[in-house]
Design goal:
This protein is α/β, with parallel strands linked by helices and 261 residues long. It contains ten helices and 13 strands.
């Protein structure tokens, strides 16, 4: 597998993505908050050349530039821009958490460009109590002159984020996301998205983490209310791809194998 990183511009912002190659149909993967395209590396290895896996560093994440806003419309426009850049008319979408919501909302707004989608623990109704679970990241430092200084400044959270910090072109070290951006993005992803979930009709798979963010009752309603949708539940937490890679890979592979040619 030959993985390449490339960039393109949208309204003066740079977006970065990984292309895992493969001779098969295109599969566009969208990560969740505080993550990046590289989180799908294991999946890319499992799919081999059966699918052409392309993973986007979404706005404000990874090697993509920060954005002026983190609205629903902004994320969806970035997906359309990437497809246009790649010359792809339609694809299968896969998204985790934030990425899962972006995937089914893109399918709702651009049904002609989505052949099927996989939603990995992305809810349809969330944050209605007004709480933002990402507020804890505001205590994290964004940058420091050295890697050691940045990790140390994060205190107990340093062990969790040490592997993702990186050196920038200016020689300073930073997180691959800005804490303030993550809180703003989480605020704007909250809401009741049932209309988006039920407005598309393409094949869909919901992968629910048993110890994740989607209550069982909500997951069951998602399957009942949207035709052409099935669910796989995995006994793991919200970070399905990292903590149950075998179960995740198997669920994705089986669904993709079922899609019409």
């Amino acid at each position: 597998m030959t993985v390449t990183r490339a960039t393109f511009e949208v309204n003066g912002r740079r977006l970065s993505y990984l292309d895992f190659g493969g001779a098969g149909r295109p599969l566009l993967a969208l990560h969740g908050h505080m993550s990046n395209a590289a989180s799908f590396t294991d999946l890319g290895e499992r799919l081999g050349d059966r699918w052409r896996l392309i993973a986007l560093d979404q706005r404000g994440h990874g090697f993509s530039d920060r954005a002026g806003d983190y609205s629903r419309a902004g994320y969806i426009a970035d997906i359309a821009a990437l497809l246009d850049h790649l010359g792809l008319g339609s694809v299968v979408l896969l998204g985790h958490s934030l990425g899962g919501i972006n995937a089914y909302q893109f399918a709702a707004r651009h049904p002609e460009r989505v052949e099927a989608f996989i939603d990995v623990d992305g809810a349809v109704s969330l944050g209605l109590d007004g709480r933002n679970p990402l507020h804890f990241v505001l205590a994290l430092p964004y940058e420091a002159p050295t890697r050691a200084a940045l990790v140390e400044a994060m205190g107990p959270m340093g062990a969790h984020f040490a592997d993702v910090v990186r050196e920038r072109a200016d020689g300073r070290w930073s997180l691959p996301f800005h804490p303030g951006d993550m809180v703003a993005s989480e605020d704007q992803v909250h809401g009741d998205h049932w209309a988006d979930w039920t407005s598309s009709v393409c094949p869909a798979l919901l992968i629910r983490a048993a110890h994740g963010v989607i209550p069982r009752e909500q997951a069951e309603a998602m399957i009942e209310r949207r035709p052409n949708t099935r669910m796989v539940e995995l006994d793991t937490d919200h970070f399905v791809y990292a903590n149950d890679p075998d179960g995740f890979g198997e669920a994705v592979g089986e669904f993709l194998a079922m899609l019409p040619a």
